[in-house]
Write a structure and sequence with these properties.
This is Fe-S cluster assembly protein SufD. Residues 43-56 have a biased composition (Basic and acidic residues). The protein has helices spanning 36-39, 93-96, 137-144, 375-382, 388-404, 410-426, and strands at 10-12, 15-18, 21-22, 106-111, 117-122, 148-154, 164-185, 190-211, 216-223, 230-239, 244-251, 256-265, 271-280, 285-294, 300-309, 315-324, 332-341, 347-356, 363-371. By secondary structure, the protein is mostly beta strands. It folds into two domains: 33-372, no CATH class; 374-429, no CATH class. A hairpin with a 2-residue loop joins strand 1 (10-12) and strand 2. Helix 4 (375-382) crosses helix 5 and helix 5 (388-404) packs antiparallel against helix 6. The longest helix has 17 residues, at 388-404.
Protein backbone atom coordinates (compact mmCIF):
# COMPACT_ATOMS: atom_id res chain seq x y z
CA UNK A 1 0.00 0.00 0.00
CA UNK A 2 1.32 3.47 -0.87
CA UNK A 3 1.93 5.76 2.08
CA UNK A 4 0.22 9.12 2.19
CA UNK A 5 2.36 12.26 2.39
CA UNK A 6 1.47 12.57 6.06
CA UNK A 7 2.65 9.01 6.69
CA UNK A 8 5.90 9.77 4.87
CA UNK A 9 6.61 12.73 7.15
CA UNK A 10 9.86 12.76 9.06
CA UNK A 11 11.52 14.94 11.66
CA UNK A 12 14.02 17.56 10.56
CA UNK A 13 15.51 19.70 13.33
CA UNK A 14 12.55 18.74 15.48
CA UNK A 15 10.00 19.93 12.94
CA UNK A 16 7.70 17.55 11.12
CA UNK A 17 8.13 17.70 7.35
CA UNK A 18 7.00 15.74 4.34
CA UNK A 19 9.13 15.19 1.26
CA UNK A 20 11.86 17.34 2.94
CA UNK A 21 9.59 20.37 2.91
CA UNK A 22 8.01 22.07 5.89
CA UNK A 23 4.25 22.58 5.74
CA UNK A 24 3.44 26.10 6.89
CA UNK A 25 -0.17 27.28 7.13
CA UNK A 26 -0.86 30.06 4.67
CA UNK A 27 2.25 29.37 2.60
CA UNK A 28 2.38 28.09 -0.95
CA UNK A 29 5.24 26.43 -2.78
CA UNK A 30 5.87 29.75 -4.49
CA UNK A 31 6.58 31.28 -1.07
CA UNK A 32 3.99 33.79 0.06
CA UNK A 33 5.41 36.60 2.19
CA UNK A 34 4.31 36.07 5.78
CA UNK A 35 5.54 39.48 6.84
CA UNK A 36 3.74 41.59 4.25
CA UNK A 37 1.76 43.60 6.77
CA UNK A 38 4.72 44.07 9.06
CA UNK A 39 7.07 45.08 6.28
CA UNK A 40 4.68 47.65 4.86
CA UNK A 41 6.12 50.30 7.16
CA UNK A 42 9.33 50.48 5.13
CA UNK A 43 10.48 48.83 1.93
CA UNK A 44 13.62 46.75 2.21
CA UNK A 45 16.01 45.10 -0.17
CA UNK A 46 16.73 41.40 -0.02
CA UNK A 47 20.45 41.94 -0.38
CA UNK A 48 21.30 41.69 3.32
CA UNK A 49 22.98 43.78 5.97
CA UNK A 50 25.70 45.53 4.06
CA UNK A 51 24.50 46.27 0.56
CA UNK A 52 24.31 50.04 1.00
CA UNK A 53 24.83 52.80 3.50
CA UNK A 54 21.25 54.00 3.30
CA UNK A 55 19.41 54.03 6.60
CA UNK A 56 16.70 51.42 7.06
CA UNK A 57 14.13 51.69 9.81
CA UNK A 58 10.98 50.04 10.97
CA UNK A 59 9.63 47.69 13.59
CA UNK A 60 8.46 44.12 13.70
CA UNK A 61 10.38 42.39 10.92
CA UNK A 62 14.09 41.93 11.55
CA UNK A 63 14.61 43.00 7.93
CA UNK A 64 13.42 46.49 8.85
CA UNK A 65 15.70 47.01 11.84
CA UNK A 66 17.48 50.33 11.57
CA UNK A 67 21.04 50.25 10.18
CA UNK A 68 23.31 52.98 8.86
CA UNK A 69 26.27 55.27 9.52
CA UNK A 70 24.43 58.46 10.50
CA UNK A 71 24.95 58.98 14.24
CA UNK A 72 22.05 61.44 14.47
CA UNK A 73 19.70 58.62 13.47
CA UNK A 74 20.77 56.68 16.57
CA UNK A 75 19.96 58.87 19.58
CA UNK A 76 21.03 57.95 23.08
CA UNK A 77 18.91 54.91 24.03
CA UNK A 78 16.49 55.15 26.94
CA UNK A 79 15.98 51.46 27.64
CA UNK A 80 12.47 51.45 26.20
CA UNK A 81 13.75 50.39 22.78
CA UNK A 82 13.43 46.70 21.92
CA UNK A 83 17.15 46.34 21.25
CA UNK A 84 18.13 47.94 24.57
CA UNK A 85 15.46 46.83 27.04
CA UNK A 86 17.63 44.12 28.62
CA UNK A 87 20.82 46.20 28.82
CA UNK A 88 22.09 48.18 31.89
CA UNK A 89 22.48 51.46 30.00
CA UNK A 90 23.86 53.46 32.93
CA UNK A 91 26.95 51.27 32.88
CA UNK A 92 27.43 51.83 29.15
CA UNK A 93 27.57 55.62 29.18
CA UNK A 94 31.30 55.50 28.53
CA UNK A 95 30.96 53.56 25.27
CA UNK A 96 27.76 55.07 23.87
CA UNK A 97 29.01 58.66 23.88
CA UNK A 98 30.54 60.13 20.71
CA UNK A 99 34.11 60.21 22.00
CA UNK A 100 37.55 59.44 20.54
CA UNK A 101 39.99 56.83 21.76
CA UNK A 102 42.19 57.90 24.66
CA UNK A 103 45.81 57.29 23.66
CA UNK A 104 47.31 53.99 24.79
CA UNK A 105 44.06 52.77 26.35
CA UNK A 106 44.48 49.52 24.43
CA UNK A 107 47.36 47.84 22.64
CA UNK A 108 47.14 45.47 19.68
CA UNK A 109 49.44 42.61 18.81
CA UNK A 110 49.02 40.58 15.62
CA UNK A 111 50.71 37.20 15.27
CA UNK A 112 50.52 35.58 11.83
CA UNK A 113 52.48 33.60 9.27
CA UNK A 114 54.39 35.43 6.53
CA UNK A 115 51.71 34.72 3.93
CA UNK A 116 49.18 36.81 5.86
CA UNK A 117 49.07 40.52 4.95
CA UNK A 118 48.59 42.94 7.85
CA UNK A 119 47.87 46.62 7.14
CA UNK A 120 45.31 49.32 7.88
CA UNK A 121 42.28 50.83 6.16
CA UNK A 122 41.20 54.45 6.43
CA UNK A 123 37.52 55.36 6.52
CA UNK A 124 36.08 54.99 3.02
CA UNK A 125 38.81 52.62 1.83
CA UNK A 126 37.55 49.29 0.48
CA UNK A 127 36.83 46.69 1.65
CA UNK A 128 36.09 48.49 4.94
CA UNK A 129 32.33 48.91 5.49
CA UNK A 130 31.52 46.63 2.56
CA UNK A 131 30.04 44.10 4.99
CA UNK A 132 29.45 45.75 8.35
CA UNK A 133 26.40 47.96 8.75
CA UNK A 134 26.08 49.49 12.23
CA UNK A 135 22.85 48.26 13.83
CA UNK A 136 22.90 50.37 17.00
CA UNK A 137 24.42 53.53 18.40
CA UNK A 138 27.45 51.73 19.81
CA UNK A 139 28.50 50.37 16.42
CA UNK A 140 28.03 53.75 14.72
CA UNK A 141 30.14 55.47 17.36
CA UNK A 142 32.89 52.85 17.03
CA UNK A 143 32.98 53.25 13.25
CA UNK A 144 33.00 57.05 13.42
CA UNK A 145 35.80 57.19 15.98
CA UNK A 146 38.12 54.57 14.49
CA UNK A 147 39.94 56.49 11.73
CA UNK A 148 42.15 53.50 10.92
CA UNK A 149 40.92 49.90 10.81
CA UNK A 150 43.22 46.95 11.35
CA UNK A 151 43.17 44.90 8.11
CA UNK A 152 44.23 41.24 8.12
CA UNK A 153 44.10 39.52 4.73
CA UNK A 154 44.64 35.88 3.77
CA UNK A 155 45.53 35.52 0.06
CA UNK A 156 43.54 33.32 -2.33
CA UNK A 157 44.25 29.58 -2.13
CA UNK A 158 46.43 30.00 0.99
CA UNK A 159 46.06 27.52 3.86
CA UNK A 160 47.29 29.10 7.07
CA UNK A 161 48.27 26.33 9.46
CA UNK A 162 48.61 28.33 12.69
CA UNK A 163 45.85 30.53 14.10
CA UNK A 164 46.09 34.21 13.22
CA UNK A 165 45.98 35.99 16.57
CA UNK A 166 44.84 39.52 17.32
CA UNK A 167 45.51 40.20 21.01
CA UNK A 168 43.77 43.29 22.39
CA UNK A 169 44.86 44.41 25.87
CA UNK A 170 43.15 47.15 27.83
CA UNK A 171 45.53 49.28 29.88
CA UNK A 172 43.21 51.67 31.71
CA UNK A 173 39.91 50.96 33.44
CA UNK A 174 37.24 53.50 32.53
CA UNK A 175 39.21 54.88 29.57
CA UNK A 176 37.62 54.86 26.12
CA UNK A 177 38.82 52.81 23.14
CA UNK A 178 37.17 52.51 19.69
CA UNK A 179 38.17 49.72 17.35
CA UNK A 180 37.46 48.48 13.84
CA UNK A 181 38.94 45.25 12.46
CA UNK A 182 38.54 43.85 8.94
CA UNK A 183 39.33 40.18 8.34
CA UNK A 184 39.35 38.94 4.74
CA UNK A 185 39.88 35.38 3.50
CA UNK A 186 40.55 35.12 -0.23
CA UNK A 187 38.85 32.58 -2.52
CA UNK A 188 39.50 28.95 -1.53
CA UNK A 189 41.72 29.93 1.39
CA UNK A 190 41.62 28.43 4.87
CA UNK A 191 42.34 30.21 8.15
CA UNK A 192 41.50 30.50 11.85
CA UNK A 193 41.34 34.00 13.38
CA UNK A 194 41.56 34.41 17.17
CA UNK A 195 40.63 37.76 18.71
CA UNK A 196 41.36 37.80 22.44
CA UNK A 197 40.42 40.65 24.78
CA UNK A 198 42.15 41.06 28.15
CA UNK A 199 42.83 43.77 30.69
CA UNK A 200 40.59 46.76 31.47
CA UNK A 201 39.02 49.46 29.30
CA UNK A 202 35.73 50.87 28.05
CA UNK A 203 35.99 49.11 24.70
CA UNK A 204 33.76 49.64 21.66
CA UNK A 205 34.77 47.36 18.79
CA UNK A 206 33.51 46.42 15.33
CA UNK A 207 34.70 43.38 13.40
CA UNK A 208 33.77 42.64 9.79
CA UNK A 209 34.62 39.34 8.16
CA UNK A 210 34.74 38.78 4.39
CA UNK A 211 34.65 35.10 3.43
CA UNK A 212 35.26 34.80 -0.30
CA UNK A 213 33.97 31.95 -2.49
CA UNK A 214 35.11 28.51 -1.42
CA UNK A 215 36.98 29.75 1.66
CA UNK A 216 36.96 27.98 5.03
CA UNK A 217 37.10 30.47 7.90
CA UNK A 218 36.78 30.26 11.66
CA UNK A 219 36.67 33.35 13.92
CA UNK A 220 37.11 32.84 17.67
CA UNK A 221 36.34 35.86 19.85
CA UNK A 222 37.47 35.52 23.47
CA UNK A 223 36.23 38.03 26.05
CA UNK A 224 38.52 37.44 29.03
CA UNK A 225 38.50 40.94 30.47
CA UNK A 226 39.14 41.98 34.06
CA UNK A 227 36.07 42.49 36.28
CA UNK A 228 35.92 46.27 35.69
CA UNK A 229 35.96 46.21 31.87
CA UNK A 230 33.08 47.29 29.61
CA UNK A 231 32.80 45.86 26.09
CA UNK A 232 30.25 46.43 23.34
CA UNK A 233 30.80 45.13 19.83
CA UNK A 234 29.30 44.14 16.52
CA UNK A 235 30.70 41.32 14.37
CA UNK A 236 29.33 41.04 10.82
CA UNK A 237 30.28 38.47 8.19
CA UNK A 238 29.39 37.83 4.56
CA UNK A 239 29.85 34.23 3.39
CA UNK A 240 30.62 33.53 -0.26
CA UNK A 241 29.51 30.76 -2.61
CA UNK A 242 30.28 27.25 -1.34
CA UNK A 243 32.21 28.74 1.58
CA UNK A 244 32.29 27.65 5.21
CA UNK A 245 32.19 30.07 8.16
CA UNK A 246 32.20 29.47 11.90
CA UNK A 247 32.03 32.16 14.60
CA UNK A 248 32.69 31.17 18.22
CA UNK A 249 32.18 33.70 21.03
CA UNK A 250 33.41 32.88 24.54
CA UNK A 251 32.67 35.43 27.27
CA UNK A 252 33.99 34.90 30.78
CA UNK A 253 35.24 38.31 31.91
CA UNK A 254 34.05 41.89 32.04
CA UNK A 255 31.51 43.81 34.08
CA UNK A 256 29.21 44.34 31.09
CA UNK A 257 29.71 42.67 27.71
CA UNK A 258 27.21 43.15 24.87
CA UNK A 259 28.16 41.43 21.63
CA UNK A 260 26.18 41.35 18.36
CA UNK A 261 27.23 38.57 15.96
CA UNK A 262 25.61 38.51 12.52
CA UNK A 263 26.10 36.94 9.12
CA UNK A 264 24.54 36.86 5.68
CA UNK A 265 25.36 35.15 2.37
CA UNK A 266 26.89 36.46 -0.88
CA UNK A 267 25.67 33.46 -2.90
CA UNK A 268 24.30 29.93 -2.52
CA UNK A 269 25.90 26.70 -1.31
CA UNK A 270 27.45 28.11 1.88
CA UNK A 271 27.50 26.73 5.41
CA UNK A 272 27.64 29.10 8.38
CA UNK A 273 27.59 28.47 12.12
CA UNK A 274 27.64 30.51 15.31
CA UNK A 275 28.51 29.10 18.71
CA UNK A 276 28.71 30.83 22.05
CA UNK A 277 29.73 30.07 25.62
CA UNK A 278 29.34 32.41 28.60
CA UNK A 279 29.73 32.09 32.38
CA UNK A 280 28.37 34.92 34.53
CA UNK A 281 29.29 35.55 38.16
CA UNK A 282 27.81 38.00 40.67
CA UNK A 283 27.46 41.49 39.23
CA UNK A 284 28.25 40.49 35.65
CA UNK A 285 25.93 41.25 32.73
CA UNK A 286 26.79 39.18 29.65
CA UNK A 287 24.59 39.81 26.61
CA UNK A 288 24.80 38.11 23.22
CA UNK A 289 22.67 38.83 20.17
CA UNK A 290 22.77 36.87 16.93
CA UNK A 291 21.23 37.49 13.52
CA UNK A 292 21.28 35.02 10.62
CA UNK A 293 20.12 36.67 7.39
CA UNK A 294 19.20 33.99 4.84
CA UNK A 295 19.16 36.35 1.88
CA UNK A 296 20.00 33.84 -0.88
CA UNK A 297 18.88 30.30 -1.71
CA UNK A 298 20.23 26.90 -0.70
CA UNK A 299 22.39 27.85 2.27
CA UNK A 300 22.54 26.31 5.74
CA UNK A 301 23.01 27.80 9.21
CA UNK A 302 23.26 26.58 12.77
CA UNK A 303 23.37 28.63 15.99
CA UNK A 304 24.04 27.19 19.45
CA UNK A 305 24.77 29.29 22.55
CA UNK A 306 25.19 27.87 26.06
CA UNK A 307 25.61 29.69 29.33
CA UNK A 308 25.97 29.12 33.06
CA UNK A 309 25.22 31.58 35.86
CA UNK A 310 26.18 31.63 39.52
CA UNK A 311 25.94 34.19 42.28
CA UNK A 312 23.60 36.97 43.30
CA UNK A 313 22.77 39.37 40.43
CA UNK A 314 24.52 37.33 37.74
CA UNK A 315 22.70 38.17 34.52
CA UNK A 316 22.82 36.84 30.96
CA UNK A 317 20.84 37.73 27.85
CA UNK A 318 20.64 35.91 24.53
CA UNK A 319 18.54 37.24 21.64
CA UNK A 320 18.58 35.12 18.48
CA UNK A 321 17.09 36.25 15.17
CA UNK A 322 16.82 34.17 12.00
CA UNK A 323 15.29 35.73 8.88
CA UNK A 324 14.56 33.50 5.89
CA UNK A 325 13.75 35.84 3.03
CA UNK A 326 11.43 35.07 0.13
CA UNK A 327 14.41 34.50 -2.18
CA UNK A 328 16.03 31.98 0.19
CA UNK A 329 14.43 28.78 -1.08
CA UNK A 330 16.08 25.55 0.04
CA UNK A 331 17.25 27.04 3.34
CA UNK A 332 18.12 24.77 6.27
CA UNK A 333 18.41 26.66 9.56
CA UNK A 334 18.30 25.99 13.30
CA UNK A 335 19.07 28.02 16.44
CA UNK A 336 19.15 27.04 20.10
CA UNK A 337 20.06 28.59 23.44
CA UNK A 338 20.49 26.72 26.73
CA UNK A 339 21.17 28.17 30.18
CA UNK A 340 22.13 26.47 33.43
CA UNK A 341 21.32 28.44 36.60
CA UNK A 342 23.60 27.32 39.42
CA UNK A 343 22.53 29.55 42.32
CA UNK A 344 19.59 31.61 43.54
CA UNK A 345 19.56 35.25 42.44
CA UNK A 346 20.89 34.61 38.94
CA UNK A 347 18.74 35.42 35.92
CA UNK A 348 18.92 34.37 32.28
CA UNK A 349 16.77 35.91 29.52
CA UNK A 350 16.49 33.98 26.27
CA UNK A 351 14.50 35.08 23.22
CA UNK A 352 14.69 33.05 19.98
CA UNK A 353 13.02 34.61 16.94
CA UNK A 354 12.33 32.94 13.60
CA UNK A 355 10.87 34.83 10.62
CA UNK A 356 10.05 32.95 7.40
CA UNK A 357 8.98 34.55 4.13
CA UNK A 358 8.96 31.42 1.95
CA UNK A 359 7.51 27.95 2.35
CA UNK A 360 10.03 26.23 0.09
CA UNK A 361 12.71 25.35 2.64
CA UNK A 362 14.52 22.25 3.83
CA UNK A 363 14.09 22.93 7.53
CA UNK A 364 13.85 25.67 10.13
CA UNK A 365 13.45 25.68 13.88
CA UNK A 366 14.49 27.19 17.17
CA UNK A 367 14.61 26.23 20.84
CA UNK A 368 15.42 27.74 24.21
CA UNK A 369 15.71 26.31 27.71
CA UNK A 370 16.71 27.67 31.12
CA UNK A 371 16.83 25.60 34.27
CA UNK A 372 18.77 24.15 37.17
CA UNK A 373 20.67 20.90 37.50
CA UNK A 374 19.06 17.75 36.26
CA UNK A 375 18.73 15.81 39.52
CA UNK A 376 18.73 12.55 37.59
CA UNK A 377 22.24 13.32 36.32
CA UNK A 378 23.43 14.10 39.84
CA UNK A 379 21.84 10.95 41.23
CA UNK A 380 23.45 8.83 38.52
CA UNK A 381 26.93 10.16 39.32
CA UNK A 382 26.53 10.11 43.11
CA UNK A 383 25.19 6.56 42.99
CA UNK A 384 28.56 5.59 41.54
CA UNK A 385 30.49 7.02 44.46
CA UNK A 386 31.19 10.53 43.16
CA UNK A 387 30.77 13.21 45.86
CA UNK A 388 28.04 15.78 45.22
CA UNK A 389 30.44 18.70 44.70
CA UNK A 390 32.44 16.82 42.07
CA UNK A 391 29.26 15.49 40.48
CA UNK A 392 27.95 19.04 40.02
CA UNK A 393 31.24 20.13 38.47
CA UNK A 394 31.08 17.21 36.05
CA UNK A 395 27.56 18.14 34.99
CA UNK A 396 28.55 21.77 34.31
CA UNK A 397 31.70 20.79 32.45
CA UNK A 398 29.78 18.35 30.30
CA UNK A 399 27.12 20.96 29.58
CA UNK A 400 29.61 23.60 28.38
CA UNK A 401 32.19 21.31 26.81
CA UNK A 402 30.12 20.96 23.63
CA UNK A 403 30.95 24.57 22.76
CA UNK A 404 34.62 24.35 23.74
CA UNK A 405 35.06 21.43 21.37
CA UNK A 406 33.88 23.63 18.48
CA UNK A 407 36.98 25.81 18.83
CA UNK A 408 39.39 23.27 17.38
CA UNK A 409 42.52 24.95 18.79
CA UNK A 410 43.97 22.71 21.49
CA UNK A 411 45.80 25.40 23.43
CA UNK A 412 42.69 27.58 23.67
CA UNK A 413 40.48 24.66 24.62
CA UNK A 414 42.82 23.70 27.47
CA UNK A 415 43.01 27.30 28.69
CA UNK A 416 39.23 27.62 28.74
CA UNK A 417 38.84 24.36 30.61
CA UNK A 418 41.13 25.73 33.31
CA UNK A 419 39.21 29.02 33.41
CA UNK A 420 35.91 27.19 33.85
CA UNK A 421 37.38 25.13 36.69
CA UNK A 422 38.29 28.38 38.44
CA UNK A 423 34.79 29.76 37.87
CA UNK A 424 33.20 26.67 39.39
CA UNK A 425 35.41 26.89 42.47
CA UNK A 426 34.18 30.39 43.32
CA UNK A 427 30.87 29.20 44.77
CA UNK A 428 31.92 25.65 45.50
CA UNK A 429 30.04 24.04 42.56
Amino acid sequence: MTNTPAEQAEKVAGVEVGERRISIPGMTEEGENLAAATNAAADHSHGGLGESKDLKSGSGSRANRRTGFDLESFPEPTGREEEWRFTPLKKLAGVLSDAPTVDETVTYEVTAEDAVVVSSLAEGTAPRNSVLQPADRAAVVASKNAPEALYVQVPADAEVADPIRVDITGNAAGQRANSHIVLEAGPHSKAVFVIEHRGSADFNGNVEVIVRDGADVKVISLQRWEDDAIHVGQHDAEVGRDASYKHVAVTLGGSVVRLNANFRYAAEGAEAEMYGLYFADSGQHLEHRTFVDHNSPRNTSNVLYKGALQGESARTVWIGDVLIRKAAEGTDSYEKNQNLVLTDGARADSVPNLEIETGVIEGAGHASSTGRFDENHLFYLMARGIPEKEARQLVVRGFLNEIIQKIGVESIEESLQEALENELQIHGH
